[in-house]
């Protein structure tokens, strides 16, 4: 038992310790640390890191942290720091980011890809050409026989199946095939082919052009100089329409039309009663509608090699973008448009009208895709496939997905878990990207 002499001394000692330690605990909790380099008390910054897949190791300036993604690290000194994210069997990511006192910086939506090599398949024998539908991975092969060409269809890792016989003997006409948006129908050499039922729906007369509806999978239009007819692929029925147009697409119960006058092209919408409303005036040319998310319209200027993005809700300035483009794709979640003129990739945000250059290369760019599981653009150049992040702070991370196979076309499967495609020699490949 303490004597009466030591009791007050011990009490005041505890009070003094509390008065000293309590502010230190509060300051530490608030992120204040003693910085040995400056000899001052400095408030740290916060680094938040998330990745696909989760559970990746985070390194800061070469020091491994105990946190794994998704991680919030709250004791980082202000200044520039090299952040590195790693996971076994995956590509790594790193970037130099500026940390600011009392603020959070984010390294979000980092995508790491498996580094295992792809599996390959030899090219099918006796087939001369192929057409690929990139969204579904359906490949149509053409086999020359007496009197024409047989169409055979397959997907990677599936067996070939004979689809139909088309009568053309001109191999150059096989290169001009068109797919419907969902990949079920193929228009090639004047024949509309149903890949699913393996039947020819219709064979067109010379001089008639067929276009698929960019906004309805089971519908197309027959166009000639004087009239337009609608084709229902499910029933085979053909319905003449009371107008002419160079381009047409459905818009609910209405139809979108592009018609030429003497000095310009007119984009309009026509209701079921035949009443038209003008949406926009375009330079006279040759146009077609291509798929776009609601409420936007996307029109390809096939004469000049351009795309035109239109917001029909805007009455005074409906044309949002008119740019050179050889390929394009939309981000389904944000409606951001990614497009390339063949050597540069650009991104356009219709909600903010912000347009930025993602990358510029000296070699031609082909097969442009958004990666479904992160803010990453994927493209082919020089026969190889690359993935590049959109975060333009610090170093730009670019990952080689497929190399050395002379890729001709590719697509993603299982929501980005796999990449598959065909080579310029006609062989197939498949590679796992995520587990």
Radius of gyration: 30 Å
* Spatial strand sequence of the major β-sheet: 5-4-7-8
Bulk shape: elongated
Output the number of helix runs. Answer: 1
Please give the alpha-carbon distance between the first and last residues.
Answer: 65 Å
User: Total number of β-strand segments?
Assistant: 41
CATH superfamily of the domain at 35-111, by name, is: Immunoglobulins
CATH class membership of the domain at 35-111: Mainly Beta
The average pLDDT is 88
Residue share in β-strands? over 45%
Which bin fits the share of residues in helices? under 10%
Largest sheet: 4 strands, antiparallel
Low-confidence stretches: none
Alpha-beta classification: mainly beta
Report on this structure.
By secondary structure, this protein is mainly beta. Among the domains are: 1-30; 35-111, Immunoglobulin-like (Sandwich), CATH 2.60.40. It has 1 helix and 41 strands. It has a 4-stranded antiparallel sheet with strand order 5-4-7-8, with no helix packed on it. A hairpin with a 5-residue loop joins β21 and β22.
Give a quick rundown of the structure.
The strands form eleven sheets. A four-stranded antiparallel beta sheet has the order 5-4-7-8, with no helix packed on it.
SSE arrangement:
Blueprint: H1 6-29, E1 32-35, E2 40-43, E3 45-52, E4 57-60, E5 63-68, E6 71-76, E7 79-86, E8 93-99, E9 104-111, E10 119-121, E11 129-133, E12 138-145, E13 148-154, E14 161-166, E15 178-179, E16 185-188, E17 191-194, E18 199-203, E19 209-212, E20 219-223, E21 228-232, E22 238-241, E23 247-251, E24 254-260, E25 264-270, E26 276-283, E27 287-290, E28 297-301, E29 306-310, E30 319-324, E31 327-330, E32 337-340, E33 344-349, E34 354-360, E35 366-370, E36 376-381, E37 384-389, E38 398-402, E39 407-413, E40 418-423, E41 428-432
Parallel strand pairs: 3-9
Antiparallel strand pairs: 1-2, 3-6, 4-5, 4-7, 7-8, 10-41, 11-12, 12-13, 13-14, 15-16, 16-17, 17-18, 19-20, 20-21, 21-22, 23-24, 24-25, 25-26, 27-28, 28-29, 29-30, 31-32, 32-33, 33-34, 35-36, 36-37, 37-38, 39-40, 40-41
